[in-house]
Amino acid sequence: MTVAAGRRRFPWVLTASSIAIVAALLAPLVLVVVQAAQSGWSNVWEVLDRSYVATLLWNTVRLAAVVTLLAAIIGTGAAWLTERTALPGRRLWAVLLIIPVVIPDFVLSWSWSSVFDAVHGFNGAVLVMTLHLYPLIYLPMAGAFRSADPGQEEAARGLGLSLWRVWWRISVRQARATLLGGCLLVCLALLSYYGAFENLRYQTFTTAIFGELQTQFSPGVASSMSLVLVAISLFVLGGEAVFRERGRVDRTGPLAQRALMPIPLSGFRKALALAGIVALVALALGFPIGIVGYWMVVGQSSGLPAAVSLGSAVGYTVAYSALAAALATALALPVAMLAARHRRRWAAALERSTFVVQAIPGVVVGLALVFLTSRYLFSLYQSPELLVAAYALMFFPLALVAMTASVLRASPRLEEIGRSLGKGPVAVRLRVTLPLLGPGLAAAFCFVFLSAATELTATLLLVPTGVQTLATQFWAYAEEGVSFGAAAPYAATMIALSAVPAYLLSRWYDHRFRGDPSGRSALEALT
Amino acid sequence: MSTITCRQITKSFGDTRVLDDLDLDVPDGAVVTLLGESGSGKTTLLRLIAGFERPDTGTIAIDGEVVDAPQRFVPPERRRVGFVAQEGNLFPHLTVARNIAFGLPRADRASGRNSGRVDEMLQLVGLDGLGKRYPHELSGGQQQRIALARALAPRPRLVLLDEPFSSLDAGLRASLRRDVMEILRARRATTVFVTHDQSEALSVADLVGLIDHGRIRQFAAPDALYDRPRDPAVAQFLGEANIMPGAAADGDVDTVLGRLHLSDEDRAQRGPVAVLVRPEQLRIVAEAATDGGRTFVGTSGTVAHREYYGHDSVVLVRLDGSDVTMRVRCPGAARLALGDRVALAVDGDVIAWPAGEAG
Known about the structure:
Chain A has helices spanning 12-38, 41-49, 51-84, 90-96, 105-113, 121-133, 135-146, 150-158, 163-174, 176-192, 195-199, 205-216, 219-250, 267-299, 307-341, 345-353, 362-375, 384-394, 396-409, 412-420, 425-453, 457-462, 470-480, 484-512, 518-526. By secondary structure, chain A is mainly α. Chain A is globular, with a radius of gyration of 24 Å. In chain B, the strands form four sheets. In chain B, strands 7-8-9-3-10-11 form a six-stranded mixed β-sheet, with helices on both faces. A five-stranded antiparallel β-sheet of chain B has the order 2-1-4-5-6, covered by helices on one side. A five-stranded antiparallel β-sheet of chain B has the order 14-13-12-15-21. The radius of gyration of chain B is 25 Å and the shape is globular. The A-B interface holds A 1-8, 409, 411, 413-414, 416-425, 431-432, 435-436, 514-515 and B 47, 50-54, 71-83, 85, 89, 91-93, 102-103, 136, 150-151, 154.
């Protein structure tokens, strides 16, 4: 008879491991500051004072402004059409419209720049980024329209407002917080991309930082610019968190509500709406896939060695990504458990602080880890372990989101019932807790795996010497700008690895674990 | 089957004292309801008996075996206590059959889908044939039936029910309650049933424990609790009550309703008292007149408010010369309009407490 069992204890183990994990996650931030400090604050100031930084800032701001605006218009419009109108084939469009954001940014940009020379600079970046990122608006807005209270729109129509004015004054106004949150997600993505902008010859903070590190080899300057980049990202992330909270409050009304009646479209409007959606899907999804296919066919004649190196790249990519996925899942579990089972304010704050990682672009993670290992832990420099750790760190929030629903489902109440039915603590863990956590753990693993397999920026900085992953080998061919045919199989493999499984996984989870939204929430987090 | 004995149980969460020096004795085979408002500590007491939490002080014994004391703790899996929670808490990843089989010995589970015990349980709760379903494919009422079947399958010594019907709607609730209680009574299972619904508590129990601020205020059979509440607060918690001051002497008590007859237990009371008159003891009569026997005719008044419930109605009568109103229960629709002049008669004896004991 154990006396201690059953007494409510402070969760020391969970708390200690969670604090250690959060500290590790936030280490890159600290490292960048340390690195900048070592190069001297006066140097930092000098770098930031240069007109170069002002140019980068201007490039970032104007791109963010235009892309966000266009993405907001396209995403909101498409969401409204697929969720609220009787558009033919809404179900299919709803799926196809999401996929472009899951395709790696540098593959998309390459597909455009490899055929149209004109697609570069500001205009090219606006085009490619809008077509890539509008799903970040589409997805939350579709959710908001789906859960909107139909009574309010009916009341507005009853008061004599036209369909168009109802859309603007009720539907969009109601979803305003959701829309602004989505816009900030677009900004966050723009701040972190490297490959696409390098490809499109458009200078942003990430390309500049990368250039300082790789070609100029001045890590001090790179870290100084990283400070600015991270500061902007943190600011944007903070804003996004605020709007996410408000977006929640906006949804009042009962949970189970009557289904919304799709708004019928007249012949001309229907044709116009359908043409718009078809054009969007063709440009954002059909075009890049078509181009990759085209280069696959054309490239056959160029006679470059592909099959062997493709096999080895797939092998390394799968190995690194699988290890990273396992690590991220293992690290996310204690944090998720602590937040779900010990609902105290500090536990929730600890969980939420890990989302700060989203504001650390891959280039900064790479920079920080290169600094750490080249300076203090040389044995780990360009080691596979370091790359795996970097992936795990970058995609930790994804793992956390993917498992949250399952962790909540594996409630301690169920464990108690299991105990009262005569089963000991170990048996209950095995027969109740673990099976309930399973779907969430698997979702976390899969989504981190898929994200890591298509990561480029940090991989370029950290990949072990002599090793090529899918992303780096693709990049090597794509950067040369001539061997499109050689790059194409890598692009195709990455599209197959990102878009297809993401869709299938979310559908499978919906079907298999109807009460468990892990799959869907993870897809939303992945995008 | 079994008895439960709780002695001097104290339990606090942070600064909040949830149970305060509580004693409880559940006799063998009895159905006991614990009635209290939310936050009164009733669910915590149930969780202590199940072994999900430990008390700060005090001892708990089941069947005379101490299961919780400062130096002894029997974990929940060795207490043989069936627990049915408000939401059923079925294991969502297991079929109904495997939910029910969860607490059965491994040998039973291995031998061909549980050799009849699962089927027996499904039959018992009236859901044969649903063994292959998953919990999310069941209605709320079916889930509660399965939760009961799962709790009973390993033949527990006692059954604890924590507001098992409160998430169901009214019609289903009554019929499910009747079925569940029939099952538990047929098995002579010692049962502790927690609820905040007083009609539920009174209708199903052999004994009702009224729990308030972490203590048992009164523990008695339902009719005794209703007819002889130990203080005005208990009276008001259990059903509707008219409580008024009175002056007692020689087995009678003078109140705004006139001179009323004290019940046998209260005949000895003298001086200022608080008097309980249940609404169903009051009767509306056409005019003030004294009649024989044990009916007393009090003051006349006017109809101030009416509530019609179909099977009966409640009329609020404001007494003349005061702003005191009385709740009166009348069979069927009271054919009265607001402002009608009426007189009130009191049927039967009334009970009283010495004044100042009001809670």
